[in-house]
């Protein structure tokens, strides 16, 4: 079924570590190689077609190759694609973001979510004059040194949550707290308050499976950080424009001091954005002393795709429809699991993010680690054989897009239940 993909991967392994450009793609024994993608579908070089719920790990809320985004990018390309000068679209996009996210007065455009979180943490340290920060166990904020401790996503999938090559000295200022545990967080923040610049968290965890905040957790997080004069950074690289137009902060009504955006914010092209209160943001160079820069930052192509996507989302507000489709899928699978008496599998969703758990639905990283990831991988391969593509790890989340039809959803529920029954 995957002869050509296998051949390509054998060559790739001789030229790139693990044969890939990002570890999550290195599926054992080989990944499929993509030929093209349109709407809800992704097609491999072996002639197979899949309904896609990986969706490039989140950016494609409008589905693959949305025509409106494509046309906007094509016309932007007519004028060149990188200038090294400011462009008017930066102002337009900044205005749009600040109008959607009331916690954001100013933005700095970067190239990736990793750069955004790295810069946000540097900004928090520069602003407060303190060196330490707290992250949540199992969260993933990209692949930069200070956050590669108990990191989720590919770092956990490949058994390296604490990356080699990161000197102990670099991570001595990274403190960890379990998700959904208010007492543990309060203790660590109170104990370190004079040295703590910030708490960074994914408001909904999307990189250690999908973990949903318990009632009131995010409000307590805000209270604890505020009372202890610690900045709160919401890493909304996944949840921004996804949980709602205004991200998790709008959805839960909690206002962070600094926000990082990415993925959907670039409409499928590389981007990262740091946003926050003016008094904090003005510490970025050149108005302040926190250095942050990039040759490709604010590039016209990513900005065009991101701005076009954000405009479409703000005009069409497809969030009810996205939620309905996702809930339909989850309900059909949940009912099927109950009827078929499938043991040890749960399913859950929040808005257009969902996950099939091989074990009990987790509430933190420790419980996510107890899931049966080998069984998940058997399920993954069965799904592929039946024309459905999930992200290739138990620790990733699945994403619904506006391009998925109700027929896709019904077909997917059938396939999931068939595969579970065959396991
Ligand atoms: C929550 C979160 N933050 C940051 C990142 C890093 O973004 P990027 O892959 O664009 O560097 C990711 C994904 O990789 C993410 O899921
Ligand atoms: N889970 C990661 C981002 O959200 C997956 C992207 C990657 O590491 O390539």
From TrEMBL:
Entry GO CC: cytoplasm
Pathway listed: Porphyrin-containing compound metabolism; protoporphyrin-IX biosynthesis; 5-aminolevulinate from L-glutamyl-tRNA(Glu): step 2/2
Catalysis performed (reactions): (S)-4-amino-5-oxopentanoate = 5-aminolevulinate
GO molecular function, a single term: transaminase activity
Entry-annotated residues carrying N6-(pyridoxal phosphate)lysine: 263
Domain of life: Archaea
Location relative to the cell: Cytoplasm
Swiss-Prot/TrEMBL keywords: Cytoplasm, Isomerase, Porphyrin biosynthesis, Pyridoxal phosphate
The UniProt record lists the keyword Isomerase: yes
Enzyme Commission identifier(s): 5.4.3.8
Co-factor(s): pyridoxal 5'-phosphate
A UniProt-annotated Pfam family: Aminotran_3
Gene Ontology process terms (BP): protoporphyrinogen IX biosynthetic process
Alphabetized SUPFAM superfamilies for the sequence: PLP-dependent transferases (SSF53383)
HAMAP family named in the record: HemL_aminotrans_3
Family: Belongs to the class-III pyridoxal-phosphate-dependent aminotransferase family. HemL subfamily.
Protein name: Glutamate-1-semialdehyde 2,1-aminomutase
Organism of derivation: Geoglobus ahangari
Encoding gene (name): hemL
